[in-house]
């Protein structure tokens, strides 16, 4: 079997409301690049990458000279063709490799008539549990609904998600408002759901001293972990030495050299594996094996997925014996998806691992074209800007917090009602 073509299509899919984070916001939609890898046997594999636009589409087009004629079963050869470590000093293609690897695994599964998890060692669980993944949100520009700014709104939103999807783990994405204010919001969640697990992620916006202070304030709560409280391995090592809560990261340990450094001189207790950031499903499994050897826990990270990447997260979560925490997913914030059958469903806070050959998802061509057209109409957005604070830009550590008492009106590119 040989690869004959690669087609990349950028889409933008509306969210229920804009999601705020320490670096800016998702402006009411996700922008993703959908990758289709064609073969001479007529099998088409699917991949997905965050971001997109003309540059991403052209970058994938540029890989055709590397990959046309390549056997999709030759995954190690694929890795070095795209991500040779010295060549990557000049042209880092890690996330592009991930999308191609997804598609090759999808092709292999379809060719062999088995789900991807069987190519990865076999599953140890039938469904992957997820956390609620709560954000401070701006109102939807069309409906005016969906705002999460106060502790009361946060608890109400978490309650709605818990009732609808069955979540028993709640993650708060912070780094937007002053730490004292977000502490009160976090404590309100703990009070509202005394039997559930919690986790807090300020996206490294806190100084080391603020992170230590915040961690000490929540030590008595049902915490899974404190995620990326501050920037840098050394800073987190200081936090870890003074706070009794496990620390996790998806930003500081995203390759094997960083993983080795963290093992030799520990800063982080829980490694959040992202199938895009690590360059594919298989690198995540290799990293999880290293973590298993050194008794580090792992979880599955979310980078703003549609159904294709969600499927990669499910197959990854299915095969990891040391997956001891619920996974993250932005998925429930989406209004729609580009896969056949619509959005995958949560049952009791978990999503079933696909059982059909390959990744187990297929493109809805009408939806793909609809959201590709929407992208062509409205374009991208500045991920590292907040549409409600036009002159603001992020600092690390942050000192310019949003005002939670201020109502807001801002100009966000129209999210079409779908």
Describe this structure in words.
This protein is of the alpha/beta class and 418 residues long. It has helices spanning 54-62, 64-67, 75-83, 94-112, 116-119, 151-165, 179-192, 208-217, 233-242, 256-264, 281-293, 307-319, 365-378; strands at residues 3-14, 19-21, 24-26, 29-39, 44-50, 127-129, 134-137, 169-173, 197-201, 223-227, 247-249, 270-273, 297-300, 350-352. The protein has a nine-stranded mixed sheet with strand order 3-2-7-8-9-10-11-12-13. Strands 1-4-5 form a three-stranded antiparallel sheet. A two-stranded antiparallel ribbon has the order 6-14. Strand 2 and strand 3 (24-26) form a beta hairpin. Helix 6 (151-165) crosses helix 7 and helix 11 runs parallel beside helix 12. It catalyses: D-glucarate = 5-dehydro-4-deoxy-D-glucarate + H2O. Its EC number is 4.2.1.40.
Q: What's the structural blueprint in terms of helices and strands?
A:
Blueprint: E1 3-14, E2 19-21, E3 24-26, E4 29-39, E5 44-50, H1 54-62, H2 64-67, H3 75-83, H4 94-112, H5 116-119, E6 127-129, E7 134-137, H6 151-165, E8 169-173, H7 179-192, E9 197-201, H8 208-217, E10 223-227, H9 233-242, E11 247-249, H10 256-264, E12 270-273, H11 281-293, E13 297-300, H12 307-319, E14 350-352, H13 365-378
Parallel strand pairs: 7-8, 8-9, 9-10, 10-11, 11-12, 12-13
Antiparallel strand pairs: 1-4, 2-3, 2-7, 4-5, 6-14
């Amino acid at each position: 079997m040989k690869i004959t073509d690669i087609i990349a299509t950028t889409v933008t899919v509306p969210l229920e409301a804009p999601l705020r984070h320490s670096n800016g916001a998702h402006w009411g939609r996700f922008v993703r690049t959908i990758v289709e890898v064609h073969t001479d046997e007529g099998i088409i594999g699917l991949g997905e990458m965050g971001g997109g636009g003309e540059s991403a589409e052209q970058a994938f087009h540029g890989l055709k000279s590397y990959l046309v004629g390549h056997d999709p079963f030759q995954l190690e050869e694929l890795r070095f063709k795209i991500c040779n470590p010295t060549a990557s000093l000049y042209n880092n293609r890690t996330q592009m490799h991930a999308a191609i690897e997804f598609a090759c695994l999808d092709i292999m599964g379809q060719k062999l008539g088995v789900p991807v998890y069987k190519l990865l060692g076999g599953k140890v669980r039938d469904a992957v549990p997820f956390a609620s993944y709560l954000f401070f949100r701006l109102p939807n520009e069309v409906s005016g609904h969906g705002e999460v700014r106060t502790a009361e709104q946060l608890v109400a939103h978490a309650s709605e998600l818990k009732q609808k999807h069955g979540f028993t783990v709640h993650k708060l994405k912070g780094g937007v408002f002053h730490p004292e204010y977000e502490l009160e919001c976090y404590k309100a969640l703990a009070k509202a759901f005394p039997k559930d697990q919690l986790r807090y992620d300020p996206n490294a916006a806190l100084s080391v001293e603020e992170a230590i202070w915040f961690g000490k304030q929540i030590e008595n709560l049902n915490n899974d972990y404190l995620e990326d409280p501050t920037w840098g391995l050394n800073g987190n090592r200081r936090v870890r030495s003074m706070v009794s809560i496990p620390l996790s990261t998806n930003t500081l340990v995203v390759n094997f050299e960083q993983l080795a450094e963290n093992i030799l001189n520990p800063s982080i207790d829980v490694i959040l594996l992202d199938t895009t950031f690590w360059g594919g499903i298989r690198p995540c499994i290799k990293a999880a094996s290293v973590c298993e050897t050194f008794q580090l826990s792992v979880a599955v990270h979310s980078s703003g997925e549609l159904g294709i990447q969600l499927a990669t997260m499910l197959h990854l979560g299915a095969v990891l014996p040391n997956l001891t925490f619920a996974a993250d997913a932005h998925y429930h914030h989406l209004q729609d998806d580009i896969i056949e059958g619509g959005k995958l469903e949560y049952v009791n806070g978990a999503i079933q691992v696909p059982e059909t050959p390959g990744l187990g998802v297929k493109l809805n061509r009408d939806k793909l074209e609809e959201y590709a057209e929407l992208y062509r109409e409205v374009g991208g957005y500045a991920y590292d800007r907040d549409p409600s604070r036009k002159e603001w830009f992020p600092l690390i550590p942050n000192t310019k917090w949003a005002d939670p008492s201020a109502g807001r009106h801002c100009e966000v590119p129209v999210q079409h009602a779908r």
